[in-house]
Amino acid sequence: MPIDQLARGLTALPVTRCTMRVLAALAATGLLLCGMAQMSAAAKDTDAAVAGGTLAIELNAANQQQSACRLSFLVKNGMQLKLSSLVIELVLFGHDGTLLRLMSASVGAMPVSKTRLKQYDVQDLACDRIGRILLNEVTSCEGEKLTPEICTSAARTSSRSKIPLEF
Questions:
Q1: Could you tell me the maximum CA-CA distance found in the chain, to the nearest angstrom?
Q2: C-alpha span between 72 and 132 (Å, rounded)
Q3: What pLDDT shows up at residue 24?
């Protein structure tokens, strides 16, 4: 049926409350679907901004400083988004796999492509007691369009120390 005949047939229909409710429901469904499509596009924009980019976290050194073990980390923001705040949770295990420490490490703000060295002194712990370090989670990752989940998926770990850094 040609569109003009269809349109003439619709104009001949009586408008009832039921018809109005159906039309309102259809319009609301269309708005909902349009909003969902826009949210999906925004999520894809964020994923594209971090796609191919990484948040590189390297254990660069572990040096004994009197009664503390100084852990030196190199962190590089290879994502396409500026970090206004980054906090990671690290778990230190002994050579036998037992838990030695659970610590939170604040890296701070990081512009795009910035590499930063951060040092943390773990008091009353000899470095040679640490068998491995686990990046347990990204507890805070703040910045435009950023969440801890996005930073976690972008995180990559490595170690130049004899102590492995795992994820």
A1: 91
A2: 14
A3: 53
pLDDT tens for each residue of 64-114: 999 999 999 999 999 999 999 999 999 999 999 999 999 999 999 999 999
Tokens 């018809």 correspond to: 19
Q: What is the spatial distance between Cα 105 and Cα 118, in angstroms, rounded to a whole number? A: 9
Residues 139, 157, 80, 46, CA torsion sign: negative
From CA 34, how far away is CA 86, in angstroms rounded?
34
**Residue 137, burial from CB neighbour count under 10 angstroms (0-12, 13-18, 19+):** middle
Phi, psi values for residue 44, rounded to 5°: -65, -35
Q: How confident is the model at residue 47 (pLDDT cuts 50, 70, 90)?
A: low
**DSSP structure class, residue 57:** E
CA-CA-CA-CA torsion for 55, 59, 60, 62, nearest 10 degrees? 160
Please indicate, yes or no, whether the overall pTM of this predicted structure exceeds 0.90.
Answer: no
Note the CATH number of domain 55-166.
2.60.40
